[in-house]
Amino acid sequence: VELVESGGGSVQAGGSLRLSCTTSEFSVVDSDMGWYRQAPGNGCELVSTISGDGSTWYADSVKGRFTISQDNAKNMIYLQMNSLKPEDAAVYYCARPGPVGWVRTLPGISLGRLYAWGRGTLVSVSS
Question: Which string of DSSP letters, residue by residue, matches the chain?
Answer without folding.
Answer: -EEEEE--EEEETT--EEEEEE-SSS-STTS-EEEEEE-TTS-EEEEEEE-TT--EEE-TTTTTTEEEEEETTTTEEEEEE-S--GGG-EEEEEEE--TT---SEESSGGGS--SEEE--EEEEEE-
